[in-house]
Amino acid sequence: MEKTKCLIIGSGPAGYTAAIYAARADLKPVMYEGMQPGGQLTTTTEVDNFPGYPDGIDGPTLMEDLKKQAERFGTDTRWGMVTNVDTSQRPFKVDIDDGDQIMAETIIIATGATAQYLGLESEERFKGGGVSACATCDGFFYKGRDVAVVGGGDTAAEEATYLANIVNKVYLIHRRDELRASKAMVNRVLKTPNIEILWDTEVKEIVGTEQGFTKALDGAIVFNKKTGEERKIDIEGFFVAIGHTPNTELFKGKLDMDETGYLITKPDSTATNIPGIFAAGDVQDKHYRQAITAAGTGCMAAIESERFLGEQ
């Protein structure tokens, strides 16, 4: 059976950065990229907040650059999915979807999280062309324009108030008659003059123009459940803030995680409750969810993996 000192599950900024550091430490890491090599950033067009790219870079190109850098130092990147991990003893026995098995001395989990969307066909069409699940990532592109945020929790409130400092107006669309956010966040929203809350409202459709690969969102059709009124709001950006689902199904009952499924790591560390297994990126970070913070924890995980092996 194949053996490796360091197995990285998942790609994206966390996984590729972990691979760069692990490879440079001569751990000869093996990476299984998963169903979406490069992670969420491969669905993003322009990335302007990743250091080192003064003119910006599109998400797929950034991920390809990180992959090439990891491979230059000897990372063995593979297409495929991990289907099972036996965490009961080291080395860890790992099953791959093609029937292969691999024994890993350490594992770095970088499977990320999946943004939840409304499920509209038009919403899917305009992803990367006006529809986003990250105001911090994409809000700058809508400076001085009108946008909408969908949701009623703390994340939606935070995104709306963040955007309000950049854009002309924010429509906060919520399907209920009160926000689920904390009282402090609700007060911030209510005190922000350029946020208009659309209560009891659902989104029926995203509208805009499409010419080849060029997409331009120009509005959303919304429906008030109490009055029955349907209307179009003129917006150029549409931000969905109804939550993320961490990709941790594989580790349920095996690793400690919180009530929403995010892996729990030790303070100031990427170490999980199982010695030799580390978690990096959005799979354990529900607060920042940025490419640069994911890359930072990927670096941490690789360094901790190397130190763990040195202590054995």
Tell me the total number of β-strands: 19
Could you spell the SSE succession in H and E letters? Answer: EHEEEHEEEEEHEHEHEHEEEEEEEH
What is the CATH C-level name of the largest domain?
Answer: Alpha Beta
- Give the N-terminus to C-terminus distance in angstroms: 22 Å
Average of per-residue pLDDT values: 93
What is the count of DSSP helices, taking H or I runs of 4+ residues? 7
* CATH level 3 topology of the largest domain: FAD/NAD(P)-binding domain
Characterize the largest beta sheet: strand count, sense, and whether it forms a barrel: 7 strands, mixed
**Shape label:** elongated
Segments where pLDDT lies below 50 for 5+ residues?
A: none
State the CATH superfamily name of the largest domain.
FAD/NAD(P)-binding domain
What integer value in Å does the Rg equal?
A: 21 Å
What percentage of amino acids are in beta strands? 25-35%
Please, how many domains? 2
Explain what this protein looks like in three dimensions:
The protein is α/β, with parallel strands linked by helices and 312 residues long. The protein folds into 2 domains: 2-114 and 244-311, FAD/NAD(P)-binding domain, CATH 3.50.50; 117-240, FAD/NAD(P)-binding domain, CATH 3.50.50. The protein has 7 helices and 19 strands. The protein has helices spanning 12-24, 59-72, 121-125, 135-138, 154-164, 183-190, 291-311, and strands spanning 2-9, 30-32, 46-47, 57-58, 76-78, 82-86, 92-96, 101-109, 113-115, 131-132, 146-150, 169-173, 195-198, 201-211, 214-224, 230-233, 237-240, 244-246, 277-279. Strands 1, 2, 5, 6, 7, 8 and 19 form a 7-stranded mixed β-sheet that branches. Strands 10-17-11-12-13 form a 5-stranded parallel β-sheet, with helices on one face. Helix 1 runs parallel beside helix 2 (59-72), helix 1 (12-24) packs parallel to helix 7 (291-311) and helix 5 packs parallel to helix 6 (183-190). The protein is elongated, with a radius of gyration of 21 Å. The chain starts with a strand and ends with a helix. The model has no long low-confidence stretch (mean pLDDT 93).
